[in-house]
Design a protein that fits this description.
386 residues, mainly alpha, 3-stranded antiparallel sheet
Length: 386
């Protein structure tokens, strides 16, 4: 009898706890990234200067704008300094994305490693404190290894108020050098073998053993000093007043130093990692699912592409011999256009690289089969990597 009474009391206690704790809170806890997963994401950037690191963390929450900015910058390689600032005034990207245009190689790495960039952004949105703490832990490991130290390019100091906080700043605040290093070496023995770190390398950087290498310095001008890492608060501070030279987007009269706030408008509909984050930024679960479908998480988009290709094939078969010969002569010039179109489609699966690559492979197989069915025709360049 006593045993049964205790059992009933236990059930009542469980029901009370279940009613008190919201379901989304339990889900959010189970969806949290582990320290190992966060370390894998931040390893390639943990040793960057604080201001640049802050800009990367903010910009990673807007993956589509990263892609747009990187493509635009490649199309306009001659834009530098003031001319770049003036051109950026016409863009409506988030200010963090704009500021990274001063570092084309960083922007390119973020775009080419889009999966890890989006994951980094999701981690920063949902676990800012954990991300900042993990970065400091990795900096301490590098300092213990003797690889993180003051050089001609950067100054490394310890916060006198908190010896556990390591600050990295450019030696010359007008010229910023982006470090390059092997994360599996610079931190010593990597403590999380199941989560090997990502690596970003830049042309021109020289690595000597386990040391950190530096390439050409960037004269950043006004894009420097408007953001910084608030290590004590576990977040990022911004001062939008210092972005007027390259950013004229309405910032709602926000003045002075303040904590960074994610702007859902610059997310461009990209689904958030979990329901808790979606609800936090006003994106419903239904909208999140719709966004995933639209960006290649299911086969809906691929089916539309297949129908379009079938229609194009029928139309092509109805062309005259003269038209086919004319098209053959123009095929070499059309190759670039076709490559560009296919690359744009590949990014529809932002945040899910495996799905995107699978869709691309299916599309290539379909095109090869279609080509064999039409017999010998000129053209047909393959879509290459950007």
């Amino acid at each position: 009898m006593k045993t049964r009474k205790r059992y009933v009391q236990l059930l009542i206690s469980i029901l009370i706890v279940a009613l008190i704790i919201p379901p989304e809170a339990m889900t959010q806890s189970s969806n949290k990234l582990t320290k190992e997963q966060i370390a894998q994401l931040v390893a390639p950037i943990a040793l960057y200067p604080d201001d640049l690191l802050a800009q990367i963390l903010m910009a990673s929450t807007y993956p589509l704008e990263i892609v747009e900015a990187e493509r635009w910058l490649k199309q306009n390689p001659g834009l530098k300094g003031n001319s770049l600032d003036q051109a950026l005034l016409e863009k409506n990207w988030d200010v963090s994305v704009k500021s990274l245009c001063q570092y084309p190689e960083v922007l390119s790495s973020m775009s080419q490693n889009l999966d890890s960039t989006a994951q980094l952004g999701d981690a920063f949105l949902s676990q800012q404190q954990d991300v900042m703490d993990t970065i400091q832990e990795l900096r301490a490991k590098a300092q213990d290894q003797g690889t993180l130290k003051t050089t001609e390019q950067q100054t490394v100091t310890v916060d006198p108020a908190d010896p556990q906080i390591i600050v990295i700043q450019p030696t010359n605040p007008e010229v910023v050098y982006v470090p390059t290093y092997n994360p599996t070496v610079v931190y010593g023995a990597w403590p999380y073998p199941a989560y090997q770190p990502y690596s970003w390398y830049y042309p021109g950087a020289v690595l000597a053993g386990a040391a950190i290498g530096f390439g050409v310095g960037y004269a950043v001008g006004s894009s420097w000093g408007w953001s910084n890492c608030n290590w004590h608060g576990g977040n990022v501070n911004v001062n939008y007043n210092r972005t007027n030279n390259f950013n004229n987007v309405n910032i709602n009269n926000r003045v002075g130093n303040q904590n960074w706030q994610h702007n859902v408008d610059h997310r461009r509909g990209v689904a958030y990692r979990d329901n808790a984050t979606s609800q936090r930024y006003g994106q419903s679960t239904a909208r999140s699912l719709e966004s995933r479908q639209a960006r290649g998480y299911t086969g809906a988009a691929n089916q539309r592409n297949i129908q379009q290709r079938k229609s194009q094939t029928v139309n092509t078969g109805q062309k005259s011999v003269h038209q086919r010969q004319s098209q053959k002569a123009r095929s070499s010039s059309n190759t670039y256009s076709g490559t560009k179109s296919r690359n744009q489609s590949a990014f529809n699966g932002v945040g899910n690289g495996k799905s995107t690559r699978a869709a691309s492979q299916r599309g290539q197989a379909s095109r090869n089969q279609s080509t064999r069915g039409r017999g010998s025709r000129g053209g047909g360049g393959r879509g290459g990597r950007r």
